[in-house]
Amino acid sequence: MPLTGQVRWGIISTANIARTAFLPGLRAGGGQPLAVASRNRTHAEHFARANGVERAIEGYQNLIDDPDVDALYIPLPNGLHAEWTIRALQARKPVLCEKPLCGTLADTERVLSAARETGTFLWEALVFPFHAQMEQIRRLLADNAIGELREIQSTFQVLLDRPADVRMSRALEGGAGNDLGCYPVRLARELFGAEHESAWATARWGGDGVDVDIQGSLSFPGGRRLLLSCGFGRSFDAFSRLLGTGGQIHISNPFLPGPKDYFDVFAHGAEARRYQARGTEPSFAPAIAHIHAVLRGEQPPRQLAIDTSLGNATALHDLLMPAAAGGA
User: Fold this and answer.
1) Among residues 99, 131, 186, 196, which one is catalytic?
2) Which of 232, 263, 260 is closest to 247 using CA atoms?
């Protein structure tokens, strides 16, 4: 039965991304941050007070079982996504799970099976396909602005210098591929409208046995390809190029665009054109607004995990397994 009124969210864990990305997007998208759960009540209470969340709950299952919670956001470490997403789905609570949906292909398949069996809505928090910038780029490609799209060159780099960060933990299924590589992979699948045929990658290893830098390629039908690099070793960089038979599009930040971001269109025989990314609202806001509309019965669901996440998980598996065999 569709919800009425404001959607009430529960947050499973006090992860930093909940504070910096989810909550601003939730408020811009018109939702209510009702409750946050931690294994430690003191941590939950501190997060709730500092971030304007109404309730602090000890224990993730207690939050899932709270009848006042309409939907759940799960920003746990990758290695915990499968267990708690499945528990939430079995409780018939719609879920927005942080990316990657799971740290392994096998767990991704288990979670998607639970989503299908329960019929419960599940989204993976790769939210950039909802952004206005992506809609502009899709229209330009459909209008043949650069001819046929043949190659995507995409990087995602951040400087990560805290050894204790969960993204440096093999046990928690961290690594640059899972944390960052999922973005270029999703970009290519979104714009090529197909799944990859083959994969190649090489990696540098560090932390607690994770890939801290990876470069590779995915081949797509018709001779198209993605060239990607991602890592934890340098300053923020998400620059991407779309190369076509009649020109190029250069995107300053396709994944987390802000007010200063842009993309340039270089079409053969024409002057370069610059478009602003329209990144004036929090990154999560368009996706959350859509989720609210779905839960109220106002829109059909788009970008559900059952439609989008398996291809990403398969591509990351195909990239990382050969890289691990060659360098771990």
Assistant:
1) 99
2) 263
* Strand intervals (E) in 26-104: 32-38, 55-58, 71-74, 95-97
Per the annotation, the verdict on 99 as an active-site residue is yes
Whether the CB-CB separation of 36 and 10 falls below 8 Å is answered with yes
Quote the CA–CA distance of 107 and 257 in Å, as a whole number.
30
Residues near 49 by beta carbon (within 8 Å), at least 6 away in sequence: none
Q: Which residues on adjacent β-strands are paired with residue 276?
A: 262
Query: 16 CB contacts (<8 Å, ≥6 apart)?
Result: none
- What does residue 23 show for φ and ψ, rounded to 5 degrees? -60, -45
Cα–Cα nearest to 72, from 165, 9, 1, 6? 9
**Along the 328 residues of the chain, how does pLDDT read in single tens digits?**
788 889 999 999 999 999 999 999 999 999 999 999 999 999 999 999 999 999 999 999 999 999 999 999 999 999 999 999 999 999 999 999 999 999 999 999 999 999 999 999 999 999 999 999 999 999 999 999 999 999 999 999 999 988 889 999 999 999 999 999 999 999 999 999 999 999 999 999 999 999 999 999 999 999 999 999 999 999 999 999 999 999 999 999 999 999 899 999 999 989 999 999 976 789 999 999 999 999 999 999 999 999 999 999 999 999 998 766 655 4
The full set of domains in the chain, from first to last, is 8-125+285-304 (3.40.50.720), 128-281 (3.30.360.10)
Is the distance from CB of 159 to CB of 232 less than 8 angstroms? yes
Rounded distance between C-alpha atoms, residue 275 and residue 251, angstroms:
10
